[in-house]
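[Q] Does anyone have a clean structure-token version of this?
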Amino acid sequence: MKRIALASMVSMVLTILWVGTTFAAGNPQVGPDVISYFKWIAIAAGFGMSIAAFGTGLAQGNAAKAGCEGVARNPDASGKIITTLMISLAMIESLAIYALVIELILLYANPFLKYIVGG
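[A] Here you go.
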């Protein structure tokens, strides 16, 4: 587990370091402030997705715990409890998907790009 975490951190750091040169390769007029902007966008997207994943993980854990406790207290109502649990887990997971969509928009289809690059 520690090896996977270390490999993930190393790849994230390398991506952050090289993201500026990748964006600058297509346009020789891009200055260092634009490259710094893209680095900060990559860092913010990483933090945003990690916060969203953390929050949804906690919420799903709490929902599963409550569902298990409800079934343990009243086994006759397990069908209704499981159905409600599955719907709530899908809603909780959709929050992480929304965060991912917003971060992908910021990374690849940034609406503020014309104000930064100037064109």
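[Q] Thanks! Anything notable?
[A] The chain has one domain: 2-110.
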